[in-house]
Amino acid sequence: MSLLAIKDLSVSYGAIQALSGISLHVEDGEIVTLIGGNGAGKSTTLRTVSGLLKPGQGSVEFEGKSIHGTAPHRIAQSRLVHVPEGRGIFANLSVEENLMLGAFSRHDADQIAADRERVLTLFPRVRERLRQQAGTLSGGEQQMLAIGRALLARPKLLMLDEPSLGLAPQIVQTIFQVIQQINREGTTILLVEQNASMALQVAHRAYVIEVGRIQIEGPARELAASDAVRKAYLGAH
Does 145 map to a domain? Predict the structure, then answer.
């Protein structure tokens, strides 16, 4: 049984078909990446899984159970956690307040404290800025905060939408190192990323989506070595 199984999923925005019968799966312990160009359907896939969009057809199962029609906050409480593109930080709240929102549905105070400390160890910059308003953080710091907040929900599956978008190369390296470390410590990850080269370096398996359809899938290393993928997404000629 896959941790996440998407089968024949179709989603429309009015007359626009965003996804056309895509199927993919994520196994426990993996990093799986979904790569493709702008408007290919990557973010739509994650938003549908997390309950923000309703599919026209198809199914989404998490831990073997259908989550079709489940409210987004209930899906998050089931430990399927989505870090959206744009990070979703509450600018007027402090960094600490933003961080602790990740534990909103938990009641295990000792474990919350341990998880908070783990996040602050992963992201020393967040620790340094706990009392600041979150809106004063740089883009990279906000991304660290968004991932840290998600980790306080203790995800079994963490979905990351464009975590490197708009960030300086050095910060991108840091973010991807943390993604690998989170995975090594036991969190499964579904990664949507336009930086296909970085995504394929850290992922175990990959899917290429174009205009709402899965075109290629396989081990990330094989896709990274594929001439078609390299020409289309990795800038190789």
Answer: yes
